[in-house]
């Protein structure tokens, strides 16, 4: 089980095995980087904040409570670092479409492919328009495939509050999408 593997690696790092920390970095580096980028939309800053996150993880590893998933703990630190960065610079970032990874469509016809790309654009634009908390919830839910419970731990919120934010934002998207497109779409 991944959860047990992480606990073992943490114990090895605490016992002085630096190689185990390198394994943790390799395992979570891209997850943390994508999560931070989803919040601040700045590639270079995301890389710096990701590095700061791992430095903090290393320095505070003794504080990790192994009753919880290590991945949730590290993403909570990454979230706090990203929010600190936003507060420090008080800037709003917009996604650069060219930097986003294009999703490939498995649709058969050009019309279906166009509709898929158009829907993907609406979803991306909608997520970028969300406030910080809702955006974090969507990124964790879809990019990192976290459960509502895991998201509640990472964001230090009640699970019911996370669900309320998620479903309210989802309903808002569906209203906007139906109004502008007039269909059910691919949904969230």
Report on this structure:
The chain is an all-alpha fold. The protein folds into 2 domains: 1-100, RNA polymerase sigma factor, region 2, helix turn helix motif (Rna Polymerase Sigma Factor, Chain: A); 109-187, Arc Repressor Mutant, subunit A (Orthogonal Bundle), CATH 1.10.10.10. The protein is 72% helix and 0% strand. Belongs to the sigma-70 factor family. ECF subfamily.
Distance between the termini: 29 Å
Count every helix, treating DSSP H or I runs of 4 or more residues as helices: 8
Mean of pLDDT: 80
Beta-strand segment tally: 0
Integer tally of domains: 2
Q: Categorize the overall geometry.
A: elongated
Radius of gyration: 18 Å
Unreliable spans are 91-108
SSE class: mainly alpha
- Report the sheet-strand fraction: under 5%
Compact summary:
The chain is an all-alpha fold and 188 residues long.
Features of the shown structure:
single chain; 188 residues; mainly alpha; Rna Polymerase Sigma Factor, Chain: A; Arc Repressor Mutant, subunit A; 2 domains; 8 helices; 0% strand; elongated
């Amino acid at each position: 089980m991944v959860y047990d593997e992480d606990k073992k690696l943490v114990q090895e790092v605490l016992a002085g095995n630096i190689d185990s920390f390198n394994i943790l970095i390799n395992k979570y580096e891209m997850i943390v980087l994508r999560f931070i980028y989803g919040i601040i939309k700045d590639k270079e800053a995301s890389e710096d904040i990701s590095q700061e996150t791992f430095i903090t993880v290393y320095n505070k590893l003794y504080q990790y409570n192994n009753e919880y998933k290590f991945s949730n703990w590290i993403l909570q630190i990454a979230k706090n670092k990203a929010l600190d960065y936003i507060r420090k610079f008080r800037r709003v970032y917009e996604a650069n479409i060219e930097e986003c990874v294009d999703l490939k469509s498995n649709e058969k016809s050009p019309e279906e492919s166009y509709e898929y790309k158009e829907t993907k654009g609406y979803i991306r634009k909608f997520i970028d328009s969300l406030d910080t908390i809702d955006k974090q919830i969507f990124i964790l839910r879809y990019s990192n495939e976290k459960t509502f419970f895991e998201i509640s731990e990472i964001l230090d919120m009640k699970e019911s509050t996370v669900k309320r934010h998620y479903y309210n934002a989802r309903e808002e998207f569906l209203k906007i999408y139906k109004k502008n497109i007039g269909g059910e779409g691919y949904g969230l």
